[in-house]
Amino acid sequence: MGITKTEGFSLKTIDRADLFKALGHPARLSIIEMLVNTPNCINSEIVDEIPLAQPTISKHLAELKNAGLIQGNILGKNICYCINPKRLNQLKELIQNFSNQIEPKNLSF
After folding, report:
1. What is the 3-state secondary structure (H, E, C) of the chain?
2. How many structural domains does the chain have?
3. Strand pairing partners for 70?
4. Is residue 6 part of a domain?
5. What is the CATH number of the domain that holds 58?
6. CB count, 10 Å around CB of 5?
7. How far apart are the C-alpha atoms of 84 and 19, rounded to whole Å?
């Protein structure tokens, strides 16, 4: 995979792109959906629900954590993951702002 050129873009725009990139895989969307519906979730429960190998799920969890969408706390031998409400609200506001800027007259199909 090639290197993405980000020079010339604001840190805010790069952060937003990272946020959307983190959501750009079905497994990560499934994990977010699972955590939204379950306030706290142990890693092994995620592995039971997502049809991928545990190491692959761990990589997806790391992507979501790096984007700030989830948080993880160590509980014994397990990690308890949950949604980061602050970051989820930022995503919600961003999508709402985009939605508010779109007017039917600006769309042509």
Report:
1. CCCCCCCCCCHHHHHHHHHHHHCCCHHHHHHHHHHHHCCCEEHHHHHHHCCCCHHHHHHHHHHHHHCCCEEEEEECCEEEEEECHHHHHHHHHHHHHHHHHCCHHHCCC
2. 1
3. 83
4. no
5. 1.10.10.10
6. 7
7. 13
Characterize 41-54 residue by residue with b for buried, 16 or more Cβ atoms within 10 angstroms of its Cβ, and e for exposed. Answer: bbbeebbeebeeee
Write the CA distances from 75 to 34, 36, 42, 78, integer angstroms.
Answer: 19, 20, 9, 5
69, 31 Cβ separation under 8 angstroms: no
Per-residue pLDDT of the chain (109 residues; tens, 9 = 90+): 455 687 889 999 998 898 999 999 999 999 999 998 886 777 778 888 899 999 999 999 999 999 999 998 888 888 889 999 999 999 999 888 888 877 665 566 5
User: Buried b / exposed e across 28-38, counting CB within 10 Å, b at 16+?
Assistant: bebbbebbeee
C-alpha 100/C-alpha 24 separation (Å) is 23
